[in-house]
Automatic annotation (TrEMBL):
It comes from Xanthomarina gelatinilytica. This is GldH. Pfam families: GldH_lipo (PF14109). NCBIfam families: GldH_lipo.
Length: 161
């Protein structure tokens, strides 16, 4: 019990020291991620002048049985404009070992979405994320994707030059 309290305290301290983070939130995926289930984040950027780097964060466990992941990421701007991207991320090495960080069976992945983005419209932005996985040779997508436990979105200040 004492070790658990110490680990939670250390994790809190490490997260508090993240000076680059502007926005960093996760949503849990219950058991399986349905193809029509959209994970949504409402974002109020800090300013309309400075550039930021954007990431999709994912946590997966050993039930994830693919070496890549296809996502549809949609960003809705405050005044109606929408950008939609289909993205592919590598999730495992050729030997099947998962990429990402973590000591147990949960791996955390910080995946590039966009860099040097200036939120030039004031107001709230919405980011929607859904999976677009298909098995090789099959037309229909995977209805219930197993092994993704959490989906997140992160905005960071770029590293100083």
């Amino acid at each position: 019990m004492r070790n658990s309290v110490l680990l939670v305290f250390l994790a809190f301290i490490l997260m508090s020291c993240d000076s680059k983070s502007v926005f960093d939130k996760y949503q849990s995926v219950p058991n399986k991620w349905h193809k029509d289930s959209i994970i949504s984040f409402k974002i109020h950027p800090p300013d309309t002048l400075n550039p930021y780097n954007l990431y999709v964060n994912l946590r997966n466990n050993n039930n994830y049985k693919y070496n890549n992941l296809f996502l549809i990421v949609e960003m809705k701007f405050p005044h109606g404009k929408t950008l939609k991207d289909t993205l592919e991320y590598k999730m495992a090495k050729p030997n099947g070992e998962f990429l990402g960080t973590g000591f147990a069976d949960i791996k955390e992945n910080k995946l590039w979405y966009k860099e040097q983005v200036v939120f030039n419209e004031s107001g709230d932005y919405t980011v929607n994320i859904q999976h677009a996985m298909r098995e090789n040779g099959k037309v229909n997508g995977i209805v219930n994707l197993e092994g993704i436990t959490d989906v997140g979105f992160r905005i960071e200040k770029p590293a100083a030059k």
